[in-house]
Structure formats: C-alpha cells, structure tokens
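Quick sanity check, Oxidoreductase:
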Amino acid sequence: MANTFAIITGASTGIGFELATLAAKDGYDILVVADEPLIEAAAEDFRQFGTEVRSVVADLSTLEGVDTLLAATNGRQVDVLCANAGKGLGHAFLDQSVEDWRRVVDTNITGTIYLLHKVLPQMVARNAGKVLVTGSIAGYIPGSFQAVYNSTKSFIDYFTDALRDELREADGVTLTTLKPGPVDTEFFASADMLDTSVGQSESKSDPAKVAKDGWDAMNKGEASIFSGLSTKVQGVMANVLPASVLAAQHRKMAEPGSGEE
C-alpha cells in the first residue's frame, strides 16, 4: 500500500473515525476532515499505525470548505475517497430554523456531490480509484420528524445509483454506497433526538462494524451494502409498504418525547 492516499470526511467521530482507522491500518496515508477541532485529536490516534496523517478543520456544507479540504491534498493523487460527512436534524419541519435545515441539505447533498465532482474526474482519467459514500436506510423511508435528513439521504442513495451507471465504462473506478440504519454515534445528540425512541434505543449498530462493512464492500467493488440484517429487512420492506405506513412507523421512532412513553 506504499504511497496510496485516502481522504475520509466526517472523521472526528463515529463511522468516519472508524473508516479512517481502517484506512490507516491498511497502510494508506490519510487526510481526515471534520468541522470541529476534535479532528486534531482523532488524527493523533490514527498516527499510531505508522502512515502519514494530515488533518484539516473545514465546513463541508460550503464549496469553500470542500476547496479547503482539496487544497490540503497538496496535489496528491487520491486513491480512495470516503465521503462520510453528514448532519442530522430532528423535530417537526415547521419547528426547524432555515439555518438548521439548510445546513443539513448543504452538508449532506451539496458538499458531498461537489467533492465527488472534484475528485472523480482524476480517477476516471487514470481508470483507477475507489469511492465510498455514506448513504442511509433512512433514504428509503419518509422521515416523519426527520423529514429533511431522510430526504437528503434519499438523494444520496439514488444519486450514487445513477452516478454508478454513468461510470460503468470506467471499470477501474468503483463507487460503493454504505446504507446503515441507526448507529451508536453522536448523531442523535447533535440532531437533538435524545428524547426519541430511536435516540434511546439500545439496538443501534456499532460504528466500527458499520465502517468495516462499508470498507470491505468498497474493496470488493460492490455497488452498495445495507449494514446489518435488520437494515436489510427494512430495505426490503420499504419497497413493499405504502409511504403513509412508513411515515407513521417513523413517527413512532423519531417524534420528540417518543422515548419517554
């Protein structure tokens, strides 16, 4: 793996932290990014594996933030991109501020596809490269009390399906979509969902297991992976049940106060 280079976004905690750990363990030099100074402490942890680690604090909800990340590569060839950065947002849509829901949209959609738009041309030109994008099972479910977040993940899930088809002639380039269910990370705290049924659930997935599923699928060149058996079942059911039923089920998980019932 000498001289191979990977970018991992949203790497300060959770799935991104675990993906960066796997990349460093596999011998990649890595560039890790998050929108918080905690990424510097995470970078110190990744250095234990002996590869070169660079870190940058950048707001990937903005084009300028993505450009800051790319400038930190110093022109180095990107062999692997793990586009994992994302924001959650709970509560009813009408109770959310424009600033909050726009940040979710801009982080999960605009920042992600801008990063892909900047990195993929070089991979296609040399017909080599691996990309892992973190989508979600949420993208298959109308997200009552999490409507904006789920809809952004729906965009990512289907955007990557379309882009994968567009890239099929570049057979040396792979694009894998990781689709986890609820994961035991800081997501629910940052999304203000700790008082919800899903936020309080003890059955959330281990981020290390989710990251390993995604990393292995990417290395195999798989199109996508639902991480965990229950998530696979949800994916099947989402294609069978009416949207109104799915939305009502989601309300039971995500409505504020549902964890207190």
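Posting the structure with no commentary besides this: Residues 143 and 150 are 5 Å apart (CA to CA).
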